[in-house]
Amino acid sequence: MIFDRIIGLFSADMGIDLGTATTLVYVRGQGIVLCEPSVVAVSKDTGRVLLDGMAVGEIAKKMLGRTPGSIAAVRPMRTGVIADFDITEAMLNYFIRRVHGRGSFIRPRVVIAIPSGITAVEERAVRSSALRAGARKVHLIREPMAAAIGAGLPIDEPTGSMIVDVGGGTTEVAVISLADIVCSESIRIAGDNLDAAIIEYMKRTYSLLIGEQSAERIKIEIGSAAPLKEELEMEVGGRDLIAGLPRTTTVTSQEIREALGETIQAMIETIKRTLEKTEPELSADLVHNGITMCGGGALMKGLPSVIAQATGLKVSVADDPITVVARGTGVYLDHLEQWKGAMDVSDEEM
Q: What is the pTM for the complete model shown?
């Protein structure tokens, strides 16, 4: 243990929010140093990542739907877990080397936030990818716990705190007390499903095929969970499914709200199921403490108010909700010896 602490003084230990849509990296003593889309460009001929072209992250995301026949832009994480082992390993390797630097001879300890509904096989895949990508030791922490820590909730106290993390691939809901998750729900319905719902709506209503990035842009700019004081509209371009030619049309925020309704309702039902499993004393705490939201989905217009109306609890959005989980892994790193027995899923080293 003492030797590990000494090594730690010379290692850029890091926390990673390995998300379906975005990967964030926190380095101890520096804060969040990397926030990049979880997208990788791959050569179809060799199957290898185009690292020489820096085709990882933001650059690779711009390639989605725009690549020639010899290149594929791939999202190796799906629904919060690894969909392509080799590409995820290459992506992690690139991010770790970029943050840690080639000059350091001591590999870092890495804390990775994982969905609470992940299987043992998926846990091993995450751990193995990080170790092979250059980590000295890997600690896994449940995503709702990392989010609660990053949001500054009183997790150590004997009081109930509820966190709702709406990410790209999963929606994580948990009630936490005394530094542990008391009850939780994890569904693989989140931001990607909202994008897919918009794509399907445009196909069904306008016979217009749009790409993932266009759907995401629609969601961010005019998507809402509740009626807006001033409804919005947006011009959208894509391919006409009947004529096969490029075409644009205008959609309104009311239409997009209709398209998103079913997916949003699934998230609300998940929150309700978690509340139904909560012990009475903790339920009483939640009346006072309310629900804290984080993740990119927390930024959707009207979503906090819709959840508040459905549950009868006050709902607040954490500061800088997209970085909450990554910040939580950083705080966890600072309290590793104190918390790892209670919070760490398990750890392993090379």
A: 0.89
